[in-house]
Amino acid sequence: MSPRPVLWIPRRLSDATMARAARDYDVITPEHDAPGTADEIVAMSGRVDAMLPCHSEIFSDAVVQRLDPRLKIVANHSVGVDHCDLDALRGRGIVVTNTPDVLSDATAEIALMLMLGAARHAVAGDRMVRRGEWDSWSPAFMVGKQVSGARVGIVGMGRVGRAFATMARGLGMEIHYHNRSRLSPEQEQGATFHETIETLLPQADFLSLHCPATPQTVDLINDERLALLPRGAVLVNTARGALVDEDALLRALDSGHLMAAGLDCFKVEPGGNPAFADHDNIFMMPHVGSATVRTRDAMGFRALDNLDAFVAGQEPRDRL
Ligand code: DGY
Question: Which UniProt key words apply to this protein (predicted)?
């Protein structure tokens, strides 16, 4: 690779990230901020040494097999890498990295917001005041579900799950979790470990998902598992839409078994699920868990740190 490698950045990243990238690389950026298509990714692979994509650029096996050998590294600007066929990329000798740690707090904050908003009728309340429809008050009006002191079940106790647990603990919640392996007592901080998701669910007045989307976790939350939640539970998903069977979620909400849901992720993105639109008890955000100024800069810098290390012949910190 030349001392000044060519880098494709398909999306418009933070100003600080773009400035730093331009300092050290010959950067190619698109005129419009739109997801890079399969054909663009393939075409660009013959022109660049490195790519710095987001989760919106899909490196499926079919795409990876068409990549030009010039491309050496895909330094992702995301922690989730379900948009990348890792085996295929590694099979082609392409290094892949991600950006863990730096977005944990921002994502946990969105989970917290969705949990609180879903529990306290944020969608209906905001709309009522905004439209001038707030014309009476009664003690039985918009009564929600109290979060403080309630039990929260966390699926996936990686960095984001643990950041969320810290925040939930601050609200006086009782923490239960399911994870592939049990945390150390220092990390657990009194949380109750459940070896299976089935024993976790009945303890979860609120359930928050923080595990990656893999072939094993697709539709992890389905009819059977939703039925195991206590009646009136609230589901929060800031991880990936693939984790939730959305038809099952609607059935659970419509039957009253679930009180509400808070979703930042959907099976179809962008766009979401049109069937959710008339449900005031679904508090939705458009996949913006990590979207804060500080975190966007940190993600860009972490991706560039990985790229710099690779170019310097070192092992990138977040190589997958
Ligand atoms: C991630 O980093 O995985 C977030 O979902 C944003 O892409």
Answer: NAD, Oxidoreductase
Ligand 1 atom at shortest distance from the alpha carbon of 78? 2
Q: Are residues 244 and 300 in the same domain?
A: no
pLDDT, tens digit, 9 for 90 and up, residues 1-15: 777 999 999 999 999
114 in the same domain as 256: yes
139 and 280 housed in the same domain = yes
Cβ of 79 below 6 Å from ligand 1? yes
Q: What is the structure's pLDDT at 1?
A: 73
| Exposure string over 37-61, b if 16+ CB within 10 A, otherwise e | eeeebbebbeebbbbbbbbbbbbee
Can 269 be counted among the known catalytic residues? yes
10 Å Cβ neighbour count for 216? 8
Whole-angstrom distance between the N-terminal and C-terminal Cα of the chain?
21
Q: Is 14 in the pocket of ligand 1 (CB under 6 A)?
A: no
- What is the interface pTM, i.e. ipTM, of the complex? 0.95
Same domain as 68, residue 207? no
CA of 80 to the centre of ligand 1 (A): 5
Summarised one tens digit per residue, pLDDT across range 58-96 is: 999 999 999 999 999 999 999 999 999 999 999 999 999
Query: Which of 103, 109, 210, 299 gets mutated to test ligand 1 (max ligand atoms within 8 A of its CB)?
Result: 103
Question: Is 90 considered catalytic here?
Answer: no
Query: In which domain, by residue range, is 269 found?
Result: 104-284
Residues 201 and 272 in one domain: yes
Q: Percentage of residues in the chain with pLDDT exceeding 90?
A: 98
Mean pLDDT over 217-224 rounds to: 98
Do 95 and 229 lie in one domain? The reply is no
How are the residues of the chain apportioned to helix, strand and coil, as percentages rounded to the nearest 5?
35, 15, 50
- Ligand 1, from 290, 302, 306: best to mutate by most atoms within 8 Å of Cβ? 290
Asked whether residue 316 is assigned to any structural domain, the reply reads: no
